[in-house]
Design brief:
It is globular and about 60 Å long. Helix content is 48%, strand content 12%. Helix 2 packs across helix 7, helix 8 crosses helix 10 and helix 11 runs antiparallel to helix 12. It has a 6-stranded parallel β-sheet, sandwiched between helices. Helix 2 links the parallel strand 1 and strand 2. It is built from 12 helices and 9 strands.
């Protein structure tokens, strides 16, 4: 398919052809919503078994990244980190066509963005920096907040994709990197709130304080927080079904610390949080939800 043919196939009268590379918690939910919106979706995942269920939603499952992107006018990446994203897009190179839009949704970090931009330039791709805010539930509901930075002329072309996966898109200008920087700031708050919840409940357990009393004490006031309630419920129920896995949270925490260091900003809480997640991984909790930060407070397991 030529670039002109691709542009025609992705015109306003046709459903865009979208390749989704990475079908973990977030990528699978996004691909499913793209299918439900009537878009033509091809998916690929390093472990194919994680992509196969999307066939029931109407997605075509590809064997390789190159096969997935062939014929796609929009390539959406949602992988673990910048390294995995670069490796995958290099593997996709034989199927890429100049003029395609690369909607890069992985939290890649500031340093990780450079090689991805270079790769986009090499293959004539229009790069849109587009990390998202939200975890499993909003992703499944198509209620993510997309932070986007890229050429203004791509916005109309991307609208069907962005509308399918998100409740709103916050455009931050045309410079790639603006969205990544804001994502790191937002995630610094999310991770701090997660650890704050985990440590408060861990201290309550250690001191013999009922968690319900803590929650009642702050309830309805300025110290209360909806996110606190969600994570506290998961901890109290011992339900660590991953919405945002500990391993991913540790990776993001280290990207936040690195960004701060590069900007001359000391982020002591973020650095301590990264170590806390590392300890949780060492304890065998890496695949659990990041609320498992709670478990990192106890060397021998939480009190009964």
């Amino acid at each position: 398919m030529t670039a002109a043919e691709r542009q025609a196939s992705d015109g306003p009268t046709a459903a865009p052809a979208v390749a989704v590379l990475g079908t973990g918690i977030m990528g699978a939910a996004m691909a499913r919503n793209l299918c439900r919106a009537g878009l033509r979706v091809t998916v690929w995942n390093r472990t194919r078994a994680r992509a196969d269920p999307l066939a029931a939603d109407g997605a075509r499952v590809a064997e390789t990244p190159a096969e997935a992107v062939t014929g796609a006018g929009i390539v959406l990446t949602m992988l673990h980190d910048a390294v995995a994203t670069e490796e995958t897009m290099r593997a996709a190179a034989p199927g890429l066509a100049a003029g395609s839009v690369w909607l890069q949704c992985t939290t890649a970090g500031i340093d990780g963005l450079g090689p991805l931009l270079d790769l986009a330039g090499t293959h004539g791709l229009t790069f849109v920096d587009a990390p998202v805010l939200g975890t499993r539930q909003p992703a499944e509901a198509g209620q993510l907040v997309v932070l986007a930075a890229g050429p203004e002329e791509t916005r109309g072309r991307l609208a069907p994709v962005l509308d399918a996966v998100g409740a709103r898109t916050l455009w931050l200008g045309e410079e790639p990197g603006a969205a990544t920087r804001l994502k790191l700031v937002c995630n610094s708050w999310v991770l701090a709130a997660t650890h704050g919840t985990a440590e408060a409940l861990a201290l309550a357990a250690g001191l013999g304080v009922e968690p319900a009393d803590f929650l009642d004490a702050i309830g309805g006031g300025p110290l209360d927080l909806g996110y606190l309630r969600v994570k506290a419920a998961a901890i109290r129920e011992g339900d660590y079904t991953p919405s945002f896995a500990v391993t991913t949270a540790e990776k993001d925490a280290r990207l936040i610390v690195a960004a701060g260091e590069a900007a001359g900003v000391r982020l002591d809480v973020a650095a301590a949080g990264a170590e806390r997640f590392r300890r949780a991984v060492e304890q065998g909790h890496g695949d659990k939800d990041m609320a498992a930060s709670y478990l990192a407070s106890f060397d021998g397991g939480p009190p009964a």
